[in-house]
């Protein structure tokens, strides 16, 4: 079985972490002795490419991407291009037209990794942030210079869009995911006390959908309280579903609590499977450490594991996750986790573990 992957390394550390993930996939393919193959096509769309050509994605680029089974993305962002230009030019230019409306971001605690949360007697912590990935605060609606009154008086408007269908599909997705987990619980996050339209609609849809899942425990928590809960009572979490902005922030908090932003994986899914899904580490291009070869590849490698899940290769995905645990458990850690290993050394340590499983 051959799976075709479009890889987009992008900017900064994107290239080195994507290379790490592809190295791991290559190992999976070799071990399968021909049963599984990955056919990877690289797309050079980056900020450098944008500065040269005036666009991130050329005409016909999305049609090219659509021919693949999945997209493997590094990161985009550089000092030479405004961040909103690069993010809308490349990342959102894929997630929006490909209707990748479900973004899942597991918060994973690894053996051997110091976490500000974990105490010796802690039960295993493990939860998933489900992010609404198509509307909400990132719908891109609004405008600048609305007052018409000149310098010093500018008015800008940034609107959130919440549709009943959009709320319902992501909330159902969260409930279905919860059913596959040991702890069947969904925590819904809004700020409906202050934002009385869209977030109240979300709360109402959540309450209605919950009736279809009597076997799943539920709670509705305001986003400020949920941030505190992440730190104080993470053992109460299993699936956390939230809007685009809230889940974006909460998932960075989750990965920091697990030890580092460099650990966090994500999948931008089009669950209807009309378009390919996109797999990427949660972190950005990390310009402060770019070019040094010291970035943590675990977020990108775990994202590749989520891609294996999407391909139905669950055993292989679990083996990759086990290999990561074995490597960190053996004390092999990248710099951001207080270790000594550079990107290639960390990747090879994971490959070595994978070969032994
Ligand atoms: P960032 O995630 O790039 O970096 C934040 C901090 O975490 C930095 O100190 C960085 O060195 C560290 N870090 C991140 N990933 C790491 C890894 N794998 N190993 C070790 N350390 C790691 O976020 P920041 O600094 O806010 O943004 C930098 C650029 O990335 C901006 O242009 C931003 O727009 C872009 N960005 C792109 C994203 C994407 O493509 N999906 C997501 C977030 C930011
Ligand atoms: Mg983010």
Compact summary:
The chain is α/β, with parallel strands linked by helices and 357 residues long. The chain has helices at 14-31, 47-53, 61-66, 83-95, 164-179, 198-210, 223-232, 244-258, 298-310, 314-329, 343-356; strands spanning 2-10, 37-42, 70-75, 102-108, 126-132, 136-143, 157-161, 185-190, 217-222, 239-242, 265-269, 277-281. The chain has two domains: 1-104 and 263-357, Isopropylmalate Dehydrogenase (3-Layer(aba) Sandwich), CATH 3.40.718.10; 115-258, Isopropylmalate Dehydrogenase.
Search tags:
alpha/beta, 11 helices, two-stranded antiparallel sheet, about 20% strand, about 40% helix, Isopropylmalate Dehydrogenase, binds 1,4-dihydronicotinamide adenine dinucleotide, ten-stranded mixed sheet, NAD, TTC_DH, 2 domains, about 350 residues, IsoPropMal-DH-like_dom, EC 1.1.1.83, binds magnesium ion, 12 strands, single chain
Written account of the structure:
The mean pLDDT is 95. It contains 11 helices and 12 strands. With 357 residues, the protein is of the alpha/beta class. Helix 5 (164-179) packs across helix 6 and helix 7 packs parallel to helix 8. The strands form 2 sheets. Strands 2-1-3-12-11-4-5-10-8-9 form a 10-stranded mixed sheet, with helices on both faces. It has a two-stranded antiparallel ribbon with strand order 6-7. It folds into 2 domains: 1-104 and 263-357, Isopropylmalate Dehydrogenase, CATH 3.40.718; 115-258, Isopropylmalate Dehydrogenase (3-Layer(aba) Sandwich). Bound molecules: 1,4-dihydronicotinamide adenine dinucleotide and magnesium ion. 1,4-dihydronicotinamide adenine dinucleotide binds next to helix 4. Residues 248, 252 line the site of magnesium ion. Keywords: Manganese, Metal-binding, NAD, Oxidoreductase. Its cofactor is Mg(2+); Mn(2+). It comes from Brevibacterium spongiae.
């Amino acid at each position: 079985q051959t799976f075709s992957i479009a890889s987009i390394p992008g900017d900064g550390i994107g290239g080195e972490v994507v290379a790490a993930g592809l190295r791991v996939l290559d190992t999976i393919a070799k071990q399968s002795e021909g049963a599984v193959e990955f056919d990877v096509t690289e797309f050079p769309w980056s900020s450098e490419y944008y500065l040269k050509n005036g666009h991130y994605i050329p005409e016909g680029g999305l049609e090219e991407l659509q021919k693949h089974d999945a997209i493997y993305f590094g990161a985009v962002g550089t000092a030479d291009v405004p961040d909103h230009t690069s993010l809308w030019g490349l990342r959102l230019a894929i997630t929006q037209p490909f209707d990748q409306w479900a973004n899942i971001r597991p918060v994973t605690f690894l053996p051997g990794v110091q976490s500000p949360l974990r105490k010796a007697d802690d039960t295993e912590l493990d939860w998933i942030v489900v992010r609404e990935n198509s509307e909400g605060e990132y719908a891109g609606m609004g405008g600048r210079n609305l007052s018409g009154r000149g310098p010093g008086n500018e008015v800008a408007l940034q609107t959130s869009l919440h549709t009943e269908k959009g709320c319902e599909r992501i909330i159902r997705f969260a409930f279905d995911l919860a059913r596959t987990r040991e702890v069947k619980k969904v925590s819904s996050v809004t700020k409906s006390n202050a934002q009385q339209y869209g977030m109240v609609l979300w709360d109402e849809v959540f309450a209605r959908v919950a009736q279809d899942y009597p076997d799943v425990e539920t709670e509705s928590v305001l986003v400020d309280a949920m941030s505190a809960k992440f730190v104080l009572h993470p053992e109460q979490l299993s699936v956390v579903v939230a809007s685009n902005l809230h889940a974006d922030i909460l998932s960075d908090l989750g990965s920091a609590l697990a030890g580092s932003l460099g650990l966090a994986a994500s999948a931008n899914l089009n669950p209807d499977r009309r378009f390919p899904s996109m797999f990427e580490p949660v972190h950005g291009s990390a310009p402060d450490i770019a070019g040094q070869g010291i970035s943590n590849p675990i977020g990108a490698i775990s994202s590749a594991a989520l891609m294996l899940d999407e391909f139905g290769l669950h055993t292989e995905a679990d083996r990759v996750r086990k290999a990561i645990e074995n490597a960190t458990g053996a004390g092999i850690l990248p710099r951001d986790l207080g270790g000594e290993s550079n990107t290639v050394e960390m990747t090879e340590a994971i490959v070595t573990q994978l070969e032994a499983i």
